[in-house]
Amino acid sequence: MPELQIWLVALPLLLVAGAIHVALSVPMRNVTIVDTLWPLLFVIAAATYTVTLPDRGARAALLLVLVTAWGLRLAAYLAWRNRGHEEDRRYQAIRRRNEPNFTLKSLYLIFGLQALLAWVISLRWRAASRAARRWACSTRWASRSGRWA
Fold it and tell me: Whole-angstrom Cα distance, residue 104 to residue 17?
């Protein structure tokens, strides 16, 4: 699968995750759950990239494990920290400026934007998986030849 196609596969999944969180935020009247969603978007992206890669290896798996550990830890902490609190003042201000129909507007102003930003930032994941392979190859070469690559 070409690189661009691999990256494009993740975007709709991230947008769907955002839409699901919009639906979860409506009965609570609290979009602060987007903070909990943020690290999970990277987990979704990394898992998507790993699954769709034709050359999955140990490095890609290690990156997935590290991103997942970070994402789950941060999401759990943010969920715990925000539990039982009212909507964050940043989101209250956005809500006030965008009434009526804030629910619909939050789909693209908050959740969609977060998904898009996470997607753009996660594009470096593939480069990191390649860089890890190149670095490992160069250090292997250096150890055999006695010179640094």
Answer: 15
